[in-house]
Amino acid sequence: MRTSEVFLIPMSFHISLSLLFLIFHIICAPVFAQQERFPFVAEAITDRVHVRAGQSENFESLYRLDRGTKIVVLDKQYSWYKVKLSVAAKSFISSKYVQSGDGQLGTISGTRVNVRAGKGINHSILGQLTKGDRVTILEEFDGWVRIAPIRESYGWVKENFIVFKSKDVALYKPIVLKVKKPVVPVKVEIAPAVEPQEIFLDVKEIVEVKDEKVQKVEEKQEYFVAVMGYLKKTGAKKYTLLINNRLKYYVDGNAEILDQFLDYQVTVEGSVQDKAQLSDVPKTMFISKIELVL
What we know:
Blueprint lengths: L10 H25 L4 E5 L4 E4 L8 E5 L4 E8 L2 E5 L7 E3 L3 E3 L4 E4 L4 E4 L8 E5 L4 E7 L3 E4 L6 E5 L3 E5 L17 E5 L8 E5 L4 E3 L5 E3 L6 E11 L5 E5 L2 E7 L2 H4 L6 E8 L10 E10 L2
Parallel strand pairs: 21-23
Antiparallel strand pairs: 1-4, 1-14, 2-3, 4-5, 5-13, 6-12, 7-8, 8-11, 9-10, 11-12, 15-16, 17-18, 19-20, 19-22, 20-21, 22-23
InterPro entries: Cell_Wall_Dynamics_Protein, SH3-like_bac-type
Protein name: SH3b domain-containing protein
Pfam families: SH3_3
């Protein structure tokens, strides 16, 4: 009769194995926990990473990330990360429910207005707006307007395309151009005995002249603008923004930074001295913020 062999494992081996598991848990667990503690900043590990309107590849692509692009992760469901949307994301509402105001700002006139991932009611719903909400209008189409993503709308990225970068969400910031507000030259009429002179004043300031007469300076109204277009350079120091292949704005900002965005589609925010969008004559925009459209 054949007897089975029995191998005895020393007790010390069991203890050593258990100790290894314990050490692994102590060292690695905090790392895994940190990565899944929301929110955090993640980074795309490849090019053309789709940010979608839902947790499936069947949903629309709102925009794409290039390798190294950072994004804020807010949550996770199954194998999909819920992320904060960039201004490059597709975000549309029906033009019937928005009233244009000064600059590129609009006011919602309807109730429960759906924000969609495309121009049409067949596209996915990203969020809802209600009467009185303010939006930034980026582009206008036949029956639809593209707006900057609202705070309550999100995108989704497959987990294997982004990696943890930092738990400090404050590190994630769009490229911002800090431009000192220019002093506007204003012509002032003074007493006949004195020649006209050009002075530099802040907006709405009052000037006192030699004959002790106080005259009110013409008020210069500024308007906030947020638009999307192609940044071009027409001369040594002349930057322009083309919208629908038409010159719309001259751009004033930091040349070293603007040069990085030449010939690319960008979204910009800034101010102009009058309602440039109501005139065919290009106006100068003083840039405060610029982002690349992916």
